[in-house]
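Thread: 26W complex, take 2
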Amino acid sequence: MPNATEDPLAARILDTLIHRVGKDAKAARPHDWLAATILTVRDDIIDRWMASTREAHAAGAKRVYYLSLEFLIGRLLRDAIANLGRTPEVTAALASLGVDLAEIEEIEPDAALGNGGLGRLAACFMESLATLELPAYGYGIRYMNGMFRQRIDDGWQVELPETWLAHGNPWEFERRESAYFVGFGGDVAANEAGQVHWSPAEAVEAVAVDTPVVGWRGKRVNTLRLWTAVAFDPIRLDQFNAGDHEGALAGQVRAESLVRVLYPADSTAAGQELRLRQEYFFSSASIQDIVRRHVQYFGDIRTLPDKAAIQLNDTHPAVAVAELMRLLVDHHEIAFDAAWEITKATFGYTNHTLLPEALESWPLPLFERLLPRHMQIVYAINAKLLREARKVEGVDDRAIAAISLIDEGGERRVRMANLAFVGAHSVNGVAALHTELMKQTVFADLHRLYPTKINNKTNGITPRRWLFECNPGLTALIRDCIGDAFLDDASALSAFADHAGDAQVQERFDAVKRANKVALVDHLKGVMGLRLDPDALFDVQIKRIHEYKRQLLNILETVALYDQIRSHPERDWQPRVKLFAGKAASSYHNAKLIIKLANDVARRVNSDPSVGGLLKVAFVPNYNVSLAEKIIPAADLSEQISTAGMEASGTGNMKFALNGALTIGTLDGANIEIRDYVGADNIVIFGLTADEVAAKRGGGYEPRAVIEASRELAQAVNAVASGVFSPDDPNRYKDLMNGLYDHDWFMVAADFDAYAAAQRRVDGWWDDQPAWRAAAIRNVAGVGWFSSDRTIREYAEQIWGVM
Ligand code: 26W
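Output below.
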């Protein structure tokens, strides 16, 4: 072990601890060592960061701007030092100081500035953009409280505030000099020359806070720029001196409310105004920053599309389309039609959902009150759009109503998806099926009008975080088998398939998997006092809790299996552990009830001696990126069982396959493409197709008859409905089960028998370990294509024009 005084990195960490953290080695606590390590590593990143900016500037490069209301980045230390190739060096330096790197990595807060897949995708994309050496900025909000922390109390979800900034954030740089005025409300006036002037009634200052994003092998460092809000008048001294101490601070409180909390997905009307304010706040600051940089570097705002590609991550930043138009027309005095061409050439839009309740639209009076100038611009865009549409043959009144930026059915609303669609030159879906469904459903009429706009860019994941960092054992095995090419090009993983049948490789693969399972078992024993058998099949469903993702299907099958094991203890059951984790939006009643049900079932099953340890069920609290990094490498079976047509892509599916889990899944989202890449023989597919779901929903589906026709399902539903798992409150699940009988929108009953049969195929497969391991290895080998490097290359070449 090197001595701290001999190891130059250790000496620097120690110096940082003393001079920047203000502690000596004796008094330092783990958090102090964490801060000292991050600050030291950050110093080395800064040089590359500045060099990256200089290079892009000197080359006059086109920049990519990724606007996203969510960035689910998780912990950064391990990722940063791994990408810099310095893990051994940092480990040794800390060891010489008596500090365990793994231990301080574990106390870094998990930056959870997102709800789910859309936010994690944004984080994977940032890392791939830096890896591909593309000059790029991510723009979002620096929420003071990110995704809530989930506690499970007596089986129920309890939401607690997440305080990721409690110990400060050593990664970030506040840029007071990069600050912008963002206005709300007020009046709009035009002079005789037609020039428009907006006088907002209210304004805040958006201040940039930058975090460096290091690409693989440290080649490039990009910027994640998150906005925070500051009142222009942080304290009204007149009010304060007059004795109104709280009123004097009201401006700052109001400004801060913009960046206080991340909005939970799936939330209902309450608090809608604040969400629109957040969206405009960060969109406006970002567009002002982009325009300022362009004019500073290139002089002429008209060349913006040659030097800037702005990607809208769903419709959350769609108001940026109107904001850019406002700046071009009102501030840069460009004619409306010319401004519209610049705008369309600059923006791309990615759609992540077809769920009607998640398609954003704003009540017209609200939009107009908050953004009066943008309302005028939206009307002007709409007039132009509908004028052009009317000229096209076959466009009738129905089509016009569907295309319009204003929804006139009922209370009038501004449709953000339509605004994003018409304001962008490219509109992409996130998996092949999802993209086809976009053409057939939500955007059918717009697609007929602009048949070349919609394109597919199947999602991806970064193999750095989701293989090299979270699963070093598997990474080492792959290197031994096929060499290092896959470290820089995930498609080279395909060579690993040649080793699928090799008994020695299988043996090592199993040892790696088992070690990962043991590590997870230890972790879960620590956090929830649970004892699990690492030799059981680990069957895992971790994702947001939502009815379309059908955790309920999995739970009902678990209940049926429990019943079967008790009735037929003599059969050759394969020991299983069913793991669930995920958060429910706080206002989503059924999702929270499903969490309670999983916990009720777990309690009953786990304490029943008659299952003899063949089945264990666990709901792991507080799902987040860091927990996913522990669970995924330990999984044997990946549950991807959404109602076909409803999961836009999924990205967890890719992470599991890359870590050698087999998928049990429906033909939905990217599952379809995963099947194509890993081979239909190495995945368990079941259930209705998207077309069949649509046909059933069209009429003739009678879930009650389906339930009654399936003995297993009927028994499971009855058990749950009659309170077998909730003796303290027998009626707890009545309504939930009645929903299945009455409409079963998510086709749980329709798919149940196929799912249960698929699970028994899994049992048979697991029983043949050599066959299982071969298939698992073929999964790892098959999913290199799902690297976010491939996805970003496609965006870069086909949407952004930067490669
Ligand atoms: C209206 C507010 C709102 C905000 C976020 C509604 C819904 C959301 C979701 C959490 C968005 C989301 O995460 N969508 C997921 O995006 C992934 C990346 O493309 C896909 O893989 C998932 O299928 C999709 O559900």
